[in-house]
């Protein structure tokens, strides 16, 4: 299967996995300039090391609920990391994680907690409540032509009821290298404004 074909399938799967209740959304054409989040002033550059920014989507009119996608340009197979920064929902951090985990675990072809491994704290989020889960996605799941995938969910609960969520999806055969990608990307971004935000 060609790299570009796999990349399109992976992007479509990620979009479907993250589709929740219908909500207004607007794709932002940030161009070459950094996209700056309304909460904490986090700058998401077009290029962060080896990572190229993809879609930027605003889910609220005040641009406080946003997702930003990145892809590692030199990774041997398609991988996509999507970062979400948003005000907390009406649930505790743990409950929000449990509900997201339940939603993903019920998707066709998904097996929850695929690796059973623990994750170290994400760079820049030491001392912050964090929750992780890993999933195995069967080849061809959700009606797309793709090999077996792994997917990681991570949520951090910041002060002032702000959440940072990451979804990483990648081919299972590249699991060892792909598991390093979030820490590499997060070390290139500055989330310090979230500790004094909202």
Task: Describe the protein's architecture and organization.
With 198 residues, this protein is of the alpha+beta class. It is 20% helix and 33% strand. The chain is built from 4 helices and 11 strands; from the N terminus they run αβββββββαββββαα. It has helices at 3-17, 93-105, 175-178, 181-188; strands spanning 26-28, 35-36, 43-44, 47-48, 51-58, 66-72, 79-87, 110-112, 129-137, 149-158, 162-171. The strands form 2 sheets. Strands 1, 4, 5, 6, 7, 8, 9, 10 and 11 form a 9-stranded antiparallel beta sheet that branches. The protein has a two-stranded antiparallel sheet with strand order 2-3. The relative contact order is 0.20.
Short description:
By secondary structure, this protein is of the alpha+beta class. The protein has four helices and eleven strands; from the N terminus they run αβββββββαββββαα. Strands 1, 4, 5, 6, 7, 8, 9, 10 and 11 form a nine-stranded antiparallel β-sheet that branches. A two-stranded antiparallel sheet has the order 2-3.
Radius of gyration: 16 Å
Number of domains: 1
CATH class: Alpha Beta
Do you know the CATH topology? Protein Transport Mog1p, Chain A
Q: Encode the helix/strand succession as letters.
A: HEEEEEEEHEEEEHH
Count, helices: 4
Basic shape:
globular
Mean pLDDT: 82
Q: Helical content, roughly?
A: 10-25%
List segments where confidence is low: pLDDT < 50 over at least 5 consecutive residues.
none
Structural class: alpha+beta
Number of E strands? 11
Residue share in β-strands? 25-35%
C-alpha end-to-end distance: 45 Å
Biggest sheet character: 9 strands, antiparallel
The CATH architecture term is 3-Layer(aba) Sandwich
């Amino acid at each position: 299967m060609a790299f570009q074909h796999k990349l399109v399938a992976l992007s479509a799967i990620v979009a479907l996995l993250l589709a929740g209740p219908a909500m207004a959304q607007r794709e932002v054409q940030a161009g070459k300039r950094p996209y700056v989040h309304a909460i904490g002033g986090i700058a998401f550059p077009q290029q962060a090391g080896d990572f190229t920014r993809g879609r930027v989507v605003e889910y609220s009119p005040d641009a406080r609920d946003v997702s930003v996608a990145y892809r590692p340009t030199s990774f041997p197979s398609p991988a996509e990391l999507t970062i979400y920064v948003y005000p907390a929902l009406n649930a505790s951090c743990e409950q929000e994680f449990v509900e997201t985990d339940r939603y993903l675990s019920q998707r066709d072809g998904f097996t929850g907690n695929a690796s059973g491994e623990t994750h170290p704290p994400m760079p820049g989020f030491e001392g912050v409540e964090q929750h992780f889960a890993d999933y195995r996605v069967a080849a061809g799941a959700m009606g797309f032509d793709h090999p077996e995938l792994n997917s990681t969910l991570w949520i951090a609960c910041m002060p002032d009821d702000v959440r940072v969520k990451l979804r990483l999806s990648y081919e299972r055969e590249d699991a060892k290298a792909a598991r390093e990608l979030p820490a590499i990307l997060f070390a290139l971004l500055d989330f310090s404004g979230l500790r004094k935000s909202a």
